[in-house]
């Protein structure tokens, strides 16, 4: 099945993590987000994959450079998802084609079912359909129509953002501009539903990675898929429990306890006397030092948490440096889910535990206390002994 992967977007809701990289290249366990999408599609039966790049397109091309099935087209301006598929139109054969977002993870079995079903759309049951594109199906499992974020949803079946369109849909991509000024793929879907050909194919597991806490969830998922492998240097007095991967060129020193799933990437170091637990990614060249606890977090390449610190349910960008004694709060005393500002709006993460988001090159002074849900922008600084309750440097 020829497959179009949309990876031209900017990822503004993921800022500051996308200040210096396009969202498709953010790290998810052992590869970038878009590599997971391409690899799952390939395993599910994609024959050719046309990746649409745009914003910071070279970084996306580099991330996928060694994938043989991949070719690239450029969307000059990010004018919407239908416009993005239109950029790929000339590269498509006269045959059905799949469309996947470059920032949504699916399980392989579900994608295989979608590919095998012929024209169809991936659907999922959710508890809050009013926040999604709600699908109307008939008794034969065909999708009859789609309503975007309706006040009164007709069902709890929603559009999971994976499609196989009939060959004729190449001519349906020229939709009119929507109210929000974009050319939207849901309008192409609506036209395809009218044709009566689109089947509803249930998707077992999917994750739309749009906001920072969803990047954490993506890492929880993909780290959980790793099998134990110890290629790096591990001191005999370290205890590695469960699915832990220590890559070649990484080191784990004496007194360290790592409870998997966890991935310590090449060039990274952990310990002595550190405790790493939950689903944690210690990126290339990152460092977790003496008496540091890291729980359920993503440390991007070169991030350093050197001494006497606690990092929980957090994302630290590239080359972040936490001063000694930096402590992250990840739980509200009122037990409400932690809120994070996304494009200025306080937004519930839906997580009881969430720590902080640090853009690349953030540096904290010693004994900094960071409140749950705080975002530190790229290059932000804190002084010694500061308690940070509000976002900084965004
Ligand atoms: P979105 O999630 O709507 O956009 P985005 O990824 O840029 O993120 P944000 O809203 O935070 O800025 O896009 C869905 C998918 O479609 C995503 O994989 C990016 C892709 N896309 C394009 O390829 N071209 C486009 O013009 C748009 C709007 C999105």
Automatic annotation (TrEMBL):
Domain Nucleotidyl transferase residues, every copy: 3-220
Keyword Nucleotidyltransferase: yes
Listed transmembrane segments: none
Reaction catalysed by this enzyme: N-acetyl-alpha-D-glucosamine 1-phosphate + UTP + H(+) = UDP-N-acetyl-alpha-D-glucosamine + diphosphate; alpha-D-glucosamine 1-phosphate + acetyl-CoA = N-acetyl-alpha-D-glucosamine 1-phosphate + CoA + H(+)
Matches recorded under CDD domains: NTP_transferase (cd04181)
Domain Mannose-1-phosphate guanyltransferase C-terminal: 258-376
One Pfam family per UniProt: NTP_transferase
Keywords: Acyltransferase, Multifunctional enzyme, Nucleotidyltransferase, Transferase
GO terms for MF: glucosamine-1-phosphate N-acetyltransferase activity; UDP-N-acetylglucosamine diphosphorylase activity
InterPro entries, alphabetized: Bifunctiontional_GlmU_arc-type (IPR023915), GlmU-like (IPR050065), GMPPB_C (IPR056729), NTP_transferase_dom (IPR005835), Nucleotide-diphossugar_trans (IPR029044), Trimer_LpxA-like_sf (IPR011004)
EC number of the protein: 2.3.1.157, 2.7.7.23
Leading EC class: transferase
Transport in keyword set: no
Record pathway: Nucleotide-sugar biosynthesis; UDP-N-acetyl-alpha-D-glucosamine biosynthesis; UDP-N-acetyl-alpha-D-glucosamine from N-acetyl-alpha-D-glucosamine 1-phosphate: step 1/1; Nucleotide-sugar biosynthesis; UDP-N-acetyl-alpha-D-glucosamine biosynthesis; N-acetyl-alpha-D-glucosamine 1-phosphate from alpha-D-glucosamine 6-phosphate (route II): step 2/2
Family per similarity comment: In the C-terminal section; belongs to the transferase hexapeptide repeat family.
Annotated protein name in UniProt: Bifunctional protein GlmU
Organism of origin: Haloplanus litoreus
Gene of this entry: glmU
């Amino acid at each position: 099945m020829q497959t179009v992967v949309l990876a031209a977007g900017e990822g503004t809701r993921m800022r500051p993590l996308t200040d210096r990289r396009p969202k498709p290249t953010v790290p998810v366990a052992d590869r970038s987000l878009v590599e997971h999408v391409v690899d799952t599609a390939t395993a599910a039966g994609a024959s050719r994959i046309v990746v649409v790049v745009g914003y910071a397109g070279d970084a996306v091309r580099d991330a996928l450079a060694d994938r043989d099935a991949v070719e690239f087209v450029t969307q000059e301006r990010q004018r919407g998802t239908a416009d993005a598929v239109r950029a790929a139109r000339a590269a498509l054969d006269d045959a059905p084609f799949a469309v996947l977002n470059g920032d949504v993870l699916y399980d392989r079995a579900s994608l295989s079912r979608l590919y095998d079903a012929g024209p169809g759309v991936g659907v999922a049951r959710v508890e809050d359909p009013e926040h999604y594109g709600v699908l109307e199906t008939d008794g034969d499992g065909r999708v009859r129509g789609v309503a975007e974020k309706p006040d009164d949803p007709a069902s709890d079946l929603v559009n999971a953002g994976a499609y196989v369109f009939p060959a004729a849909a190449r001519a349906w991509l020229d939709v009119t501009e929507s109210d929000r000024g974009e050319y939207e793929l849901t309008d192409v879907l609506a036209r395809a539903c009218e044709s009566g050909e689109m089947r509803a194919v249930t998707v077992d597991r999917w994750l739309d990675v749009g906001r920072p806490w969803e990047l954490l969830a993506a890492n929880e998922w993909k780290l959980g898929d790793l099998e134990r492998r110890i290629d790096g240097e591990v001191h005999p007095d370290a205890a590695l429990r469960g699915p832990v991967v220590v890559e070649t060129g990484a080191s784990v020193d004496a007194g360290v306890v790592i409870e998997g799933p966890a991935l310590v990437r090449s060039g990274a170091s952990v310990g002595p006397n550190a405790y790493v637990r939950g689903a944690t990614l210690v990126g290339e060249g990152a460092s977790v030092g003496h008496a540091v606890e890291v729980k359920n977090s993503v440390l991007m390449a070169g991030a350093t948490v050197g001494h006497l610190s606690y990092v929980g349910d957090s994302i630290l960008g590239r080359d972040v440096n936490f001063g000694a004694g930096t402590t992250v709060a990840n739980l509200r005393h009122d037990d409400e889910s932690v809120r994070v500002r996304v494009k200025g709006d306080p937004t519930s993460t839906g997580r009881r535990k969430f720590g902080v988001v640090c853009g690349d090159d953030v540096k904290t002074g010693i004994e900094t206390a960071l409140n749950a849900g705080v975002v530190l922008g790229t290059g932000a600084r804190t002084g010694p002994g500061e308690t940070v309750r509000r976002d900084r440097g965004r």
